Amino acid sequence: MRPIAQDISDFRELREKGCIYVDKTDILHALIRDPGRKLYFISRPRRFGKSLMLSTLKSIFQGRRDLFAGLAIDTLDYDWVDYPILQFSFAGVKATSLEAFVADFRTRLEESFADAKAPWDPDLSPGANFRR
């Protein structure tokens, strides 16, 4: 019997360990492929799989088709291109002022750009770095 993961929110780890995964990749595919939508607000209660869903999207956008063998999206029309993914969390931010928050956020952005192997110019504003 395959294990049920209760504390794994990383899609890659979940799949590599062979844990049970409730396949909702057909829904994620529909979100990704909807040409009329540019923004989504996805609200879910605490402990309801938000991190796992984002991790699943990250694996899709990194072109990791190998992780989706046997899942719905593997049979659907998708190009599996590896896109740079910028990921950061505000969970550990303990800023006591706007200036401290901006400095912490800038550091997190720089780290996220580095993780994604995306170019970062320290002489540009964060917004200008995104537009490059």
Characterise this structure.
The chain is mainly alpha-helical and 132 residues long. The protein has two domains: 11-75, no CATH class; 84-132, no CATH class. It has five helices and no strands. The longest helix is centred in the C-terminal third of the chain and has 18 residues, at 98-115. The radius of gyration is 17 Å and the shape is globular. 8% of the residues are buried. InterPro entries: AAA-ATPase-like_dom (IPR018631). This is AAA family ATPase.
Set down the secondary structure blueprint.
Elements: H1 11-16, H2 25-33, H3 50-61, H4 98-115, H5 126-131
Domain AAA-ATPase-like: 8-114
Protein name: AAA family ATPase
Pfam families: AAA-ATPase_like
What's the number of structural domains? 2
Helix content: 25-40%
Q: What is the general shape?
A: globular
Question: How big a fraction of the residues is strand?
Answer: under 5%
Structural class: mainly alpha
User: Given the structure, what is the number of helices?
Assistant: 5
Q: What is the chain-wise order of helices and strands?
A: HHHHH
Radius of gyration equals 17 Å
- Terminus-to-terminus distance: 49 Å
Q: Describe the largest sheet.
A: none
Mean pLDDT: 90
Q: Ranges with pLDDT <50 over ≥5 residues?
A: none
Q: What is the number of beta strands?
A: 0
Organism: Candidatus Spyradenecus faecavium
Domain AAA-ATPase-like: 8-114
Pfam families: AAA-ATPase_like
Protein name: AAA family ATPase
